[in-house]
Amino acid sequence: MYVLIRRLGTGSGPTRTFKDEELAVDKLSIGRGTDQELLLPGDRVAYQHAEISLAAGQFRIRALASSGITVNGRSCKMAVLNSGDQILIADYRLIVLPSSEGIDLALSLEVLDQQDAPSVDPARFTTRLDVLQNWRPRRWAWLLFTVLLLGGLLLPALVAMKPDWQNTFRSTPLPDDSFWLSGPLHSMHSTIGKDCQACHATPFEPVKNEACMDCHADTAVHVPEVHADTSMFEGERCASCHHEHNGEQRMVFDDQRFCSDCHGNLEQRMSDAPAVERATDFHGDHPNFRLSLLQWQPQSQSWLQSPRQAVDASLQESSHLTFDHATHLDPQGIKSDDGDWQVLNCGDCHQMTVGGVNMAPINMDQHCASCHALSFDLQDPQRVVPHGKPDQVLASLREYYAAQFVQNRADGGNIPASRPGDLNSVTELQREGLVWVENKSTAVAEDLFERRACATCHEVERSAEGPAQWLVKPVRLNEEWFASSEFPHGRHTQSECIDCHAADQSTQAEDILMPDIAICQDCHKGQQASEGLRSGCISCHSYHQFDVHAEATP
Amino acid sequence: MHGSFLSHRGGFWFWVALALVLSSVLAYVWHEPLGQPNGGTWLGYTLGTMAALLIVWLTFLGVRKRAYYSRLGTVKGWLSAHVYLGGSLLVLGTLHSGFQFGLNIHTLAWLLMVLVIVSGFYGVWVYWRYPERITRNRDGMTRDLIFREVADIDRKASVIVEGLGSPADRMVISAIQLFSIGGGAWHQLTGRDRSRIMVAASKGSDKRWVRVANPTQQRLLDELTGLLSRSADPQEAALLQELIDLISRKAKLMRQLLADIRLQGLMEVWLYCHIPLTMALLATLMAHIVSVFFYW
Predict the structure, then answer these.
(1) Inter-chain touch B268–A131, beta carbons under 8 Å
(2) pLDDT, tens digit, 9 for 90 and up, residues A296-327
(3) ipTM higher than the 0.95 cut
(4) Of B108, B130, B139, B152, which to mutate for an interface test with A (greatest number of A Cβ within 10 Å)?
(5) Given an 8 Å threshold on Cβ–Cβ distance, is A206 in contact with B296?
(6) All domains of chain A, ordered by start, with CATH?
(7) Nearest 5°: phi and psi at A24?
(8) Alpha-carbon gap: A119 to the closest alpha carbon of chain B (Å)
(9) Which pTM value belongs to this model?
(10) pLDDT in tens, B239-250
(11) Which of A43, A105, A208, B223 has its CA 20 to 30 A from that of B267?
């Protein structure tokens, strides 16, 4: 079909200019797309806005864009066109002209002026659509930066550096250096309160040991200060092991690596041969127990706690006592002096001290005397000598026999009255009495000391100074076999005594009844063990050792 | 450019960041410090130093993207590294803390770091998905075109109501005059239409007209549909029908516009959080580092 497009120009009425254009097309496509037959470049025109086609002698316009078209003032999707019809597409108006010769369809085209009708003015809203136009991110950024720098750094630093400002600031809601606190203090340190400078004495310097020692003055060091290798501990601080500001979590870490760090390779760390053997794990890598024994020093007449030494079957320790555990623990019982049979248990003699760490000392009166009565006179079995020094025993015997002598003679009625003024002369009778009492007492004492009561348990020697003088060797029981570790008996009450101490097999007081490490290892596994009682070094040992006995070189 | 910075150089920075994250996690798991994990162990110091240097470097994206003549890598490469290494910081910073948190400057620094990273992740997501959504929503038009289309509909409607008279004329013209869009950030980001309309007051009221909400022209459409259903005059009905067609189109354009404003706003707003939070983080980081060594 042939289409005439008359583009109307300026002017009005008959003088209006125009320009004709003829097209030969199948369909007249209308839009702003460059492939369109009739190009309407307006923005509100779609690329393919509409098309006009000829069918059955009628021209039809069909809208292709969603904004549609308006024909004779009516919005529509489709319309049959007749001469004089007006088509509006966005701001373009097409009018169907009467057809002329050789032309199937004639259209005039004009661009409309904006009509003066109320409508939304986009300009009114542009400022309201630029999102967050008034938000100034830079201003916010610098504001936040300043506030946080001031509150988080400068003010707290000022408070920290000016002690006289501290109380003022801390009593106000203003930020102070408590904002820097990385975690709460351990409750043991709560008395320090907010006085950060108590420990952090100098800014930008790690907490010094002196700060700790201010209060913990008597805390022992690990190795004596005279030791040649104290340099090993250079750079180590209290805070290397004790981490504060972790709240109630233990400040003493039981991690055995704190110890095994050094005790795994002491040979390399120390200039001389290390006194202790390598140990990194109680179950997997720990030397056998070594014991510190009591040794009597005859020269100085004192006991010495020996350096720790390896245990073997031949090792004995003399306490100067004679004692047979096996007999005392005989399940059939033991016959006491008064003829009764008694079954004894460990606990009859060995009892824990209050607190449950150590065992209380054995006491003659409490634990032995009920069977081992110190009686000396068959006629008077209730009569006993005191459990004390030989002099006291002798004195006690003399008094007893003197009284007996007097009693015997009084019964015979031959005690003459003493004459006045004769006080200083010893009568025959008195001399006889003195001799008798002395002989009797010495004889009984000799029997007690050398054959019966005392000698049952004690080592007794006759003194070189006189015939009627004896020396009982001093007795002491060892309480410090494990000089550098601690064994709380109270926490092992679920075990029987003989599980660890083979007392029922021991017939001599010299036997050492301390258990082998293997017995402990039955229950106590290493700290890394997957099962069993996980035990680290400080389960038994302490880093700060107050009393370390000199070590015997292995 | 959406998406492209994520796959820059075959995702090179993704693999760098992944290696960084995995090696930090492995080191953290392998490292059994004496005591509990803490920023003060050697690994804690290492992770903390790395994280602090990363934070400072990440902020330099703001400098690099304005340095148009810089030849120090492309901005796209910088952005790719910024996104991936910034993401890895989440792991590095958290492992540095040893999961020890409290009410203090140190946890504040960590929290700000997390907020900056999360806002950054949101930014990546909107840059990745929103341009496509915005294009689809605009349907070939621009915001300006939509406005001109709305203005055109308004003009046509005001011509039509001249033939209808009251009450349609007052409702249509008031709907045009009380049209509102945009406004504060909240209105823009929630996409709320605060347009209003004057409708006949209910009986008994001392006013004849009241102002009511007209979101996306719905109230006007309801009123016009009511008039149409009561109309006996075919000519009047035809005009009302045409008016309804026009206003329906306007409503559709309004929804398009509101969605456009909302999407555009969301695409920009994250940066308004990301930047100030970053500066807050820098200040807090300084305070964190100084305070830790001040009270060593």
Answers:
(1) yes
(2) 998 998 999 888 888 887 888 888 999 999 99
(3) no
(4) B152
(5) yes
(6) 2-113 (2.60.200.20), 290-338+341-362+477-515 (no CATH), 368-413+427-472 (no CATH)
(7) -115, 110
(8) 5
(9) 0.72
(10) 889 899 999 999
(11) A43
